[in-house]
Amino acid sequence: MLPSRFDYHRASSVEEALSLLDDYGEDAKVLAGGQSLIPLMKLRFVSPGHLIDIDPIPGLDGIEEREGSLALGALVRHNQLASSEIITNGYPTLAAAAPQIADPIVRNLGTIGGSLAHADPAGDLGSVMLSMGANVVLRSSSGERVVPIGEFLVDTFTTSITPNELLTEIRIPTPPPRSGGSYLKLERKVGDFATVAVAVTLSLQDGTVGSAGIALTGVGLKNIEAAEAAASLHGTAPTDEAFAEAGRLAAAASNPVTDVRGTDTYKRHMVEVYTRRGLATASAMAAG
Ligand SMILES: Cc1cc2nc3c(=O)[nH]c(=O)nc-3n(C[C@H](O)[C@H](O)[C@H](O)COP(=O)(O)OP(=O)(O)OC[C@H]3O[C@@H](n4cnc5c(N)ncnc54)[C@H](O)[C@@H]3O)c2cc1C
């Protein structure tokens, strides 16, 4: 099916995009990589009157460490994440997840900003960001606000962004020394969305778990932060028993449904298994 009629606007700067959002916000959609938006428009699930293309905006595709954080521009492509040395060397959860997103064509076009703004509960990057305690930067013509990812991801395909705001940057706290991470994804075939996936980020301090973040993909109405599971690890020795208990708590935090990818019972079980395995991997990495 063809999308319904719309006016196309090519923004050449953030300021121009924000001005267009002020003019057309409620009836407009931002276009980034188009990998989620264009299919939805073709199916006529969304029919914006105006498309604001931010792809030509220079300077929104940077990957740099700044003031204790990794700053990722909203237009950073999934493939850039997968091939970045900074990410490979210092952000293992993101490094593990990026090559598992979709297929090479989608990874060449899809952006991190688009993926998070789309807020698909089966999207991989939402869980990675939750496990790493990321913030998103939202800009409008009246200023900027920095929002924790847990407050940004509100519900299925719903975020706390307002119609006149643009997501411009994602900030991930740089993990301390002796950190590790993992992203385990169960998919029916390579390139598929997750049946279940678990993001784990962990650091060790004086032989115990200093901090931990665990988040779940595809098992609820949005990416789920398994906060109780992560909290159960703080200050404990990184043992199989502690990881098994965290796995049980993560499974209890999940809320999967039975569908073509598997039964709810199977998915919950896989959350438990992947949390346990992910923690063991991250812990071994952190221990060097
Ligand atoms: C075949 C296929 C397989 C896929 N498999 C996976 C997978 O395994 N895992 C996974 O995580 N994803 C998967 N995806 C989704 C893919 O990662 C998309 O690229 C991503 O979800 C959207 O990014 P985009 O840049 O294409 O955004 P677009 O499609 O351009 O936009 C998506 C939404 O975000 C909004 N938006 C975009 N950028 C901004 C911004 N900067 N500020 C405010 N709003 C913005 C748009 O208005 C729109 O509502 C798949 C997609 C396809 C087509």
Task: Please sum up the structure shown.
This protein is α+β, with helices and mostly antiparallel strands and about 290 residues long.
Please tell me about this protein's structure:
The protein is of the alpha+beta class and 288 residues long. The chain has 3 domains: 7-51, Uridine Diphospho-n-acetylenolpyruvylglucosamine Reductase, domain 2 (2-Layer Sandwich); 63-173, 2-Layer Sandwich (Uridine Diphospho-n-acetylenolpyruvylglucosamine Reductase, domain 3); 179-286, 2-Layer Sandwich (Enolase-like, domain 1), CATH 3.30.390. Helices cover 36% and strands 26% of the residues. The protein is built from 12 helices and 14 strands. The chain has helices spanning 14-24, 37-42, 78-83, 85-90, 92-97, 104-109, 112-118, 124-132, 149-152, 227-231, 240-253, 264-286, and strands at 7-10, 28-31, 50-53, 63-66, 69-73, 135-140, 143-148, 153-155, 158-159, 166-173, 179-186, 196-205, 208-217, 224-225. The strands form 4 sheets. It has a 5-stranded antiparallel β-sheet with strand order 4-5-10-6-7. The chain has a 4-stranded antiparallel β-sheet with strand order 11-12-13-14, sandwiched between helices. The chain is globular and about 60 Å long. The mean pLDDT is 97. The structure holds flavin-adenine dinucleotide.
